[in-house]
Each structure stands twice: as structure tokens, then as C-alpha cells.
């Protein structure tokens, strides 16, 4: 009598072969998507580098545009580099503590409370605010209502509004990834919640938190619209962010690119290259710091 049963292992073999084919197809699509994503990135980098190296000389880093017209070959972005670094530093000093503490409250303390939901809602609202609206808010409140003058600090306040929600969401997600076993083990030893947050949860999530902070820094460092409304324009060097108009790399690039002279366009490309390089160096430094401060697993 002929057996109607499937030979042992035949079904598993066909299923395994089908899964392998699907796995290879999906893997191929993933690699293809990765290559497609690299195309615009490499294209932008190549365009900026190839056009920006023309004016990448010591003069560009040592001099400002004070007294230099658009058609002149000299001039540099020293005033803009100083302004950008000071504005982003002030913005980070204000935004990072507020954002990290907000995320800690939402994850560790708020629970399902009404206040936590309200805070989370307003963070979502701030995430979708256009950058120019942040600049208009600071212009209306800080400059027109309170009567302060255009300054780098006013620009830093506008950037702070844009930076806070990004850091809050990044920190919140990183804190949620910390296993609850670590929290429970700490509480079981009688450690207070604030010490658990400071010495267990934050060190565990530090690498991701720093990465989120650097993404936020990269975002605000390239913002132009809010700075046009708050720091005004200057070609001179102003190292005091609390007094008078101050330059920045985004406004420098915008101003130079608007001039049809080739010398101005070359300076704009070099400014964009320097801005990208600063962001990359900050990311590298932050990764090194986060790696050293992360807890060592044994």
C-alpha cells in the first residue's frame, strides 16, 4: 500500500528554502535602500567640499568681512564662526538641562497623571513649530516688548525654543529603553528614586542621550530664519553675545550666497563646508565623551 504521508524533513526543507529566499530578498531591498539613501548624502558632501575648498585658507578663519565688499577676493568668516559657537553654547546651556529634566519627569515621575499628559502635549506642539515662528516670538517678546537690542543672546533664545523638544523626545526614548530590572534592583536595595535616576538610569542611557543632544545641536546650528530676526546683520567681529548685532555662519552663508559675485559665492560654499565640519567635530567629541562615561558591562 502506497503511503500518502510526506517524507520526513521534506516539508521543513521547502519551508526553510522559502524563508531563505524571502530573507535574501528583504536583505537585498535593505541594502538597496541604504545605497539610495547614501546617494543624496554623498552628492551634497561632494558638492560642498568641491566648491568650498577654493577659499579654505587661513584668511577665511582669521579675518571678518568688515570693510570687504562682495567683489573683493579677501575677507573671512571669523566673526560668523565666533558668533555661531557662542550662540549654540548659550542655547545648549539653557536647553539641555530643561529638556533632560523634563524627559526624566515624563518617564520616571509623571506616570499617567494629568500634568504629564499636558507637558507631553506641549512638547509635541513645540516639535512642530516652524523655526521662523520661534524667531518671531523672541522678536516680539524679548526685543519689542522688553526693549532689548539685537544680540547673539536673542538668537540663542530662539534656538533654545527649537532645541528643547528635540532633546526631550530623544532623552525620553532613551530612558524608556533602560530595563525596569535595573530600577527594581535599585529600589529593592533601598536607594531613593532620585539617586536611582542619577546613578543608574542616566549613566545607562547616557550614550543615547548625548546622541540626541548632538542631533538637536546639528539642527539648530544650521537654522537661519530665527537668526535673521534676532541677531540682525554685522560684518564686524563681536565677541559679546549680550550686546549688539552678532554674526553667525547661517546668516553669513545666506548673505554671501545672495551676492552674484563669484568671490561671495565662494565664501558661501566655504562657510557651508566649515559649518558641516564643526557639526561633525562636535558629534565626534560627544561620542567620545559618551563612550567614556558609559557604564562598563562585566
Automatic annotation (TrEMBL):
The UniProt record lists the keyword Transmembrane helix: yes
CDD domains noted in UniProt: TM_PBP2
Keyword Methyltransferase attached: no
Gene3D superfamilies hit by this protein: MetI-like
Keywords for the protein's UniProt record, in alphabetical order: Cell membrane, Membrane, Phosphate transport, Transmembrane, Transmembrane helix, Transport
Membrane topology type: Multi-pass membrane protein
Localization: Cell membrane
Transmembrane segments: 29-49, 87-107, 119-144, 150-168, 197-218, 268-290
Domain ABC transmembrane type-1, first and last residues per copy: 81-286
A Pfam family of this chain: BPD_transp_1
Its biological purpose: Part of the binding-protein-dependent transport system for phosphate; probably responsible for the translocation of the substrate across the membrane.
Membership in a protein family: Belongs to the binding-protein-dependent transport system permease family. CysTW subfamily.
Name by which UniProt lists this protein: Phosphate transport system permease protein PstA
Species annotation: Actinomadura fibrosa
Organism taxonomic ancestry: Bacteria, Bacillati, Actinomycetota, Actinomycetes, Streptosporangiales
